[in-house]
From TrEMBL:
Keyword Kinase annotated: no
Role this protein plays: Required for the export of mRNAs containing poly(A) tails from the nucleus into the cytoplasm. May be involved in the terminal step of the mRNA transport through the nuclear pore complex (NPC).
Top-level lineage group: Eukaryota
Designated gene of the protein: Gle1
Species for this entry: Menura novaehollandiae (superb lyrebird)
InterPro entries linked to this entry: GLE1, GLE1-like_sf
Gene Ontology terms describing biological process: poly(A)+ mRNA export from nucleus; protein transport
GO cellular-component term (any): nuclear pore cytoplasmic filaments
Location of this chain's protein in the cell: Cytoplasm; Nucleus, Nuclear pore complex
Name of the featured protein: mRNA export factor GLE1
Family to which this protein belongs: Belongs to the GLE1 family.
Predominant place of localization: cytoplasm
Amino acid sequence: AGSKLREVFDKINNLLSGKPVQTEGQTVSVTQHPQGLEFVYYKLAEKFVRHGEGEVSFHHDSAFPIAVVLSGIWELHPRVGDIFLAHLHKKCPYSVPFYPARKEGTSLEEYQRMLGYEVHDSKVEEQDHFLKRMSGMIRLYAAIIQLRWPYGNKQGAHPHGLSYGWRWLAQMLNLEPLADVTAMLLLDFLEVCGNALVKQYGIQFWKTMFFIQKSYIPRIEAVTSSGQMGCLSRLKNFVQKCLQEKEIPLPKGILTPSFWRT
């Protein structure tokens, strides 16, 4: 409910503003320790990224309530946004977007960590689990760049708005595609913020969609084996349908004005 989200937002904002906050039966304040505020910035930003790789990866709709709270906090407390991006880029280099190259002397285990895989006791997480986590983080990022906290001061610009999404898409299409990962991330990104991007960039966005269909999808196909076609087929169908119907559907779970009255 919208009212519940406001409670969450106010609690986080009060904590970061140095006010005492009740939690788990005790009162806490960042002023209780000289590094209290920095510590809370760090842990809060880390927590938001965890929501992306956990909750959002399983429940796509949850990207929007989480993103709108983060967007509002970012506006009032820019340090949270900076640290959030640092955590996000480390956990999901594709959010930069960047495909790390393996340097000489880097062990396979270390390189897999650089690519975003979780490695425990020399065991690498399964590909499906890895893709799900990356998907959740990109969906959260795509939701953040288009959402504003509705009760904030609308005079200023969005702290990390759609221009960053436009840049991400352009940079992504300048990279050589990777099997599995590229198709999935492009689809996630376009599903979540394609509608917002087309409203902002119009004809330029449609040119990009046409480029994806004619030039980029064939390049993804060239590096994709027959067993990895699932996500690529979904991306193909999505782009084709959008171009045919000349519209990008609103993402599922987007917060409507009526949501804020709940």
